[in-house]
From TrEMBL, chain A:
Protein name: Molybdopterin dehydrogenase
GO molecular function, one term: FAD binding
Claim: Oxidoreductase is one of the keywords in the record: yes
Protein keywords: Oxidoreductase
From TrEMBL, chain B:
GO molecular function: 2 iron, 2 sulfur cluster binding; metal ion binding; oxidoreductase activity, acting on the aldehyde or oxo group of donors
Origin species: Prauserella flavalba
Keyword Transmembrane (UniProt): no
Chain ranges of the 2Fe-2S ferredoxin-type domain: 6-82
PROSITE patterns: 2FE2S_FER_1 (PS00197), 2FE2S_FER_2 (PS51085)
Protein name, as recorded: (2Fe-2S)-binding protein
CDD domains per the UniProt record, alphabetical: fer2
InterPro entries: 2Fe-2S-bd (IPR002888), 2Fe-2S-bd_dom_sf (IPR036884), 2Fe-2S_ferredoxin-like_sf (IPR036010), 2Fe-2S_ferredoxin-type (IPR001041), 2Fe2S_fd_BS (IPR006058), Aldehyde_Oxdr_Iron-Sulfur (IPR052914), Beta-grasp_dom_sf (IPR012675)
Metabolic or biological pathway: Alkaloid degradation; nicotine degradation
Length: 330, 176
């Protein structure tokens, strides 16, 4: 690890100005991913600006009935918050499905969104990786691909985004609030992360120096009937093979409205808009749910070791939708 | 001016400790190598095993993924610090009574994590196995297993660890 300077930020504008003006600077949140990357040689900032003491540490109710989650709200506090549990249960479930109790006590809301892929080739500096070093090549393409993408990948990168929280936020129409040197902007959670294309080194649409200050959840009545389910190689404390976040509003046996997002399948949380389109107005039958899943997965391109993800994703989508439609499938 | 070292103060098991650290030093290494506080253990050093768990300002955290400089002013309680005036914490006694360890290397982390689990359950926090996150779960064995999943035990003493924590949870003993 190279030596670095450390500053504890006490106001957001100077924190943003400092990092914006220094290409070798980085924001430090809970550190659970960045500190590890510094140890592994993946990241080498010369200045860390610690933003965890900025006053973005509360969950507030918005006048429209939505919630504003401060970027420094720890994952554990987010999952335990009574209004989150009551109005957006899939969000609480998603956070609780990630990491461990100790890590959730450290990790922040903003940092969770900006965590990087757990692709083993990305994390191993002795293997080529276009995300780590652009133009170097991708070891995963001819490697072990059980954990890699089946949707939206490119020949430059087949990594998946690891966040559970981001999948739930995508399904729940969340909006990310970003401070930058010349003001503020908002980004839909579903548009925060990118597909890799020719530039897998860029995980998100954020520019260097931009800082997430909050995530807004809109009032979304159907979110009260929402669910997050994650399938992984062990019962706890592992990243997703496939996960599903869904919210469903049913009336008279038909889908009035639905939100659906997938994790573990792509370089970004996958907003399943094709499936949503098929589902809206349709019946709440297994056949209809299967048809929706098939529509979403039609363009999938599995790799040698992860073809199972297609059937797994399909089954998981159907299972979660059935549960939300009132059938106990567990 | 670039400063790669920082002077920090930590309150470690009740004692104020002032030290100058290279900014690269993790809280774990500061505790063990600089302050001689060897209760938290270094296992994986990547946040995956939980052996380095302490209570930081009252909450269980891994100390290997936190720079010491970022903890300036914080209160650290290790498993050793949970014993007051030489009297074992109820979790210590329960781990002894139930044989909750073999080699013991992961035990201080297990103990601190368990103390955190008891506090979190008292505060009504749900977990990934809570059927309905709107409800306040009780700390049964399935809940304990899930909540302790960030602490690995290579000897495989899990069954007895769960029994030890269950006993303390059942008695409603106070944490630190």
């Amino acid at each position: 690890m190279i030596p670095f300077d450390y500053r504890r930020a006490d106001d957001v504008d100077s924190a943003v100005a400092t990092v914006t003006g220094n290409p070798a600077a980085a924001f430090l949140g809970g550190g659970t991913n960045l500190v590890d990357h510094m140890k592994l040689g993946i990241a080498g900032p010369e200045l860390l600006v610690d933003v965890t003491h900025l006053p973005f540490d509360r969950v507030e109710e918005l006048p429209d009935g939505g919630l504003r989650i401060g970027a420094n709200v720890r994952n554990s506090d987010l999952a335990a918050h009574p209004l989150v549990r009551e109005r957006y249960p899939a969000l609480a479930q998603a956070v609780l499905a990630g990491a461990s109790g100790q890590l959730r006590n450290l990790a922040t809301t903003g940092g969770n969104l900006l965590q990087r892929t757990r692709c083993v080739y990305f994390q191993d500096v002795t293997t080529p990786c276009n995300k780590r070093t652009p133009g170097e090549g991708c070891a995963a393409l001819h490697g072990y691909t059980r954990y890699h993408a089946v949707l939206g990948a490119s020949r430059h990168c087949v990594a998946v985004h690891p966040s559970d929280l981001a999948v739930a936020l995508t399904a729940l129409d969340a909006v990310v609030r970003v401070r930058r040197a010349d003001g503020e902007r908002t980004v839909r959670a579903s548009a925060l992360h990118r597909l890799p294309g020719a530039h897998p080194e860029r995980d998100t649409v954020l520019e260097h120096g931009e800082l997430i200050t909050a995530v807004d959840l809109p009032p979304l009545p159907l979110a009260a009937n929402s669910r997050y389910r994650k399938v992984r190689d062990r019962a706890s404390y592992a990243f997703a093979l496939v996960s599903v976040a869904a919210a469903l509003d049913v009336a008279d046996g038909r889908v009035r409205d639905v939100r659906l997002a997938l994790g573990g399948v792509a370089h970004k949380p996958w907003h399943a808009t094709l499936a949503e389109h098929v589902l809206r107005g349709g019946p709440t039958t297994v056949d209809a749910f299967n048809a929706a899943a098939d529509a979403e997965l039609a363009e999938a391109q599995p790799l040698p070791d992860n073809g199972f993800k297609l059937k797994l994703a399909r089954n998981l989508i159907v299972s979660v939708l059935r549960a939300l439609a009132g059938e106990d499938t567990r | 001016m670039v400063n790669t070292e920082s002077e920090i103060t930590l309150l470690v098991d009740g004692a104020p400790r002032r030290l100058t650290v290279d900014n690269r030093v993790t809280l774990l290494d500061a505790l063990r190598d600089r302050l001689g506080v060897t209760s938290p253990k270094k296992g994986c050093d990547h946040g995956q095993c939980g052996a380095c768990t302490v209570l930081l300002d009252g909450r269980r955290v891994t100390t290997c993924l936190t720079f010491a400089v970022a903890c300036d002013g914080a209160e650290v309680t290790t498993s050793a610090g949970l014993a007051v005036d030489g009297r074992l914490h109820p979790l210590h006694q329960a781990f002894l009574d139930h044989d909750g360890f073999q080699c013991g290397y992961c035990t201080p982390g297990q103990i601190c994590s368990a103390a955190g689990v008891l506090d979190e359950a008292r505060a009504g926090w749900p977990s990934a196995v809570t059927a309905d996150v709107r409800t306040t779960p009780s700390l049964g064995e399935e809940e304990i297993r899930e909540r302790m999943s960030g602490n690995l035990c290579r000897c495989g003493a899990y069954v007895n660890i769960v029994a030890a924590i269950s006993e303390v949870a059942g008695k409603g003993e106070a944490g630190p």
